[in-house]
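In this supplementary section we document a worked example of the pipeline. Step one takes a protein sequence of length 157 as its only input; no multiple sequence alignment statistics are reported here. Step two produces a three-dimensional model, which step three serialises into structure tokens for compact storage. The input and output of this example are shown verbatim.
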Amino acid sequence: MKGDEKIAEVLNTLLAHELSAISQYMVHSEMCSNWDYERLHKRTEKRAIDEMKHAEKLIARILFVEGIPIVSNLNKIHIGADVEKQLKNDRNSEEGAILAYRAAIKLCYELGDHGTREMLEDILKDEEDHIDHIEAQLDQISQMGIGIFLAEQVKAE
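The serialised model returned by step three reads:
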């Protein structure tokens, strides 16, 4: 189905957000694994996998509207040197994605592309869940201190 060129363009912009987030989160996940923060490693890895699923949906939708998926465009990736910086960088990534999804949803509504709009609304819910969890982790760090927070992330053997 030939869709509006603006829709394909905005879907590619969202795809760049997702592909960038995947890279950032996978690096953060592996850093946490290297530090033996197993719980944090698994949570961050799951978030990266969620972003992979989002990218897959976006690619499928771009093809559906007869656009060309552009997988070579990435946003700047921000790798944190420690867990707190990683979480802050990940929060910033999610905030940018949420703003982009909201704008894309508005565009889809204006152009009458309700199928794409509904798909984007589903992804937006996931992104809002991601930021909620990241903010909860940052609140825990603020309330209990980084040492206690990190002690909770170590895998019990």
